[in-house]
Amino acid sequence: MSTDPYDDLQHRGPERGSSEFVAPTMNALAVVAIVGAVLGIIGLLPVIGSVLGIVCGRIAQRQIAERGQDGGSMARIAVIMGWVGLALALLVILFVVVLIATASAPQ
Question: What angle do CA 67, 71, 76 make, to 5 degrees?
Fold first, then answer.
């Protein structure tokens, strides 16, 4: 038996080199969701990117909760950005429809 008081500090948890250590992985759908939401909010893929961000973000949140992966904040931000991008896209579409309707109305 060892009398060294610091001996147990070396054996408290699994080390990075051991087979016991498992680092949490980033959820791939969270990355897809944030990319889609960014593309939707900047206007490159306004509707498709926003919907992709919302749907993939929600699925990623569920997977992260089940599997213990990283990316929860990224998925949450993607869902929020997706809704904001979708709202902006719908406002632009509504504005264009009203603009066309008022321009083509007889005077």
Answer: 110
Supply the pTM of this predicted model: 0.75
Looking at the domain assignment, is residue 3 inside a domain?
A: no
Residues paired with 70 in a beta bridge:
26
Residue 1, in any domain of the structure:
no
Residue 68 belongs to some domain of the structure: yes
- Where would I find the H helices in the chain? 28-42, 46-67, 72-104
- The count of structural domains within the chain is 1
The tens digit of pLDDT for each residue in 51-68 reads 999 999 999 999 999 999
